[in-house]
Write a structure and sequence with these properties.
heterodimer, A: alpha+beta, Translation Initiation Factor IF3, four-stranded mixed sheet, 2 helices, B: mainly alpha, 0% strand
Amino acid sequence: MPAQAIQYLDVRWLPPPEPFEHIMDALNSLPDTDALQVLIHREPFPLYDVLRDGGFVWQVTAFENGNFEILISRAT
Amino acid sequence: MNIASLSTDQAPPISVPLRFFAVAPLFLVLAALMLAMSDGNPFAAAQTPALLAATHCITLGFMAMVMMGATQQILPVVIGSPLPASRWVAWLTSVPLGAGALSLCGGFMSGNARLFNLAWPLLGVAFLVFIIAAMLSLWRATAKNVTKTAILLSICALAAAVTLGILLARGFATGTALDYAALSVAHITMALGGWVMLLIVGVSYQVVPMFQITPAYPKWLSAVLAPALFAILLLNLALLLTGAEQTWIAAAGISFWLLAVCFALVTLKLQSQRRRKVADATLNFFRLGMVSLLLAALLWLVALLLPAFDMPLRLLSAIAFIAGFAMSLIQGMLYKIVPFLVWFHLFRGGVNAVKVGIPNMKEVIPERLMWWHLRLHGGTLLVALLAPWWNPAAWLAALGLLLQGILLGYAVFTGIAVYRRTLRRIELLAV
């Protein structure tokens, strides 16, 4: 089922683990049908294990300026 | 840093680094007491018993204690290779290091040969275990980066510094005729210029860009700095031990300090380019450290130009290096590492940890405590630099050190208490 709405979260240039903390907070309050689009300045490898364990799926887009966009939604 | 390697499997148990960090502040308190127990101004000469005892209390009991604990945490993260038998290594390094530091300082204060004879085997065991474990970890690592090279060279320098230190301590105990002046300079150079400087350089390559959100260190610097510093230190060691002319030794010294200045200036420039201009106590500890490194270099170079003031200027350079550069960076990093470890290890609690609510990293140690410590540390450094000429400054420096030890100890135990409290709630939920 495609996400009904996308919530945006910009965690660029926050020191670790603040990006992770903000993403977790946003996912905890994310409605089941929505998706979360995260903009971050480095690829958050440790996040992926947590997303997998939490029943989420995600898509990663790498930009030329070094930033990454992670689109996260619940696995159906 | 390849954050992918920051895996829960690689990291040692939290008790491994925390035991080092919990004990270390106690040695700042002891160093302060040793300065306070001195007959007269302990800073009046470079080698008063109280100053030697307090210096080793700081360099072994505080600095080496934190550096060895931090290295056991850093190696798995940065090069993806944990230390073997991490709990055993932690016990066999922290306990003999603490006991050895106490004995050595007691030896300096009392001149008792038995204490020196007790100290050097204890310190020998602590450092030997650490060096072997760290070398095994480095040898097994497949990752290749500038931090790995700097840490490897730092540990080689530590091996040389410890060998020279043991030689000196045994010499004091047995009254053996040695060239104490040359050996002492060689020992100090390898310990501070090698082990301390190179480890800070290697760790800075990771910590500054990642936690302070700055551009990376330029490749022209990071690729050559640690090997160049190490090569100069080896040359300096050879010159000192073969009784070479002072001109050559001075040339090696100038080369070392120019590279150190380069490192400090580049770090300060990177910090001025950070992406988030938010006030941060740990960043300011780091900046104070870099400015102190510049001051240490300046004082050492001026001492060459003014031979009549050689002793006080070199003493001030050593104070700027140890209390200003090394202590600022170590304390600043502790205020980052302890909350990060608490957060990271609680996060390992999985789903239950998320349900209980892991404290935000900024909630682990109150920020205002870090700012108070920074001001106290800056004040202590200032009075310590005045201490050789102004007796009341020596007592104020001791008082500052005492308060810093108490404050840092309180901060570390606050972090441990937050960890234990939250862990108990996670475990209760799991029952």
